[in-house]
Amino acid sequence: MTPLHQLGDLLREALAAVPMGLAQALFLALPLIVLIWVLRLPREETTPPEARSSLANLKLWAALALVIQVVIYAYMS
How many domains does the chain have? Predict the structure, then answer.
């Protein structure tokens, strides 16, 4: 067995030891953390300078995509 196989086996055993509930919680927590970060971004950073409507604010669309993602992930788990 090569050292690469040994490393792969070690990694597989370590990842198999992670409880499923913890993995699911982390899977949901990551997009929620990104959602909080997106919502805290200043409007000047997420809106183009020549924007004429509030729909040009990318923060709205990023937050919507993240919320949909969290809902789907929560439904799947």
Answer: 1
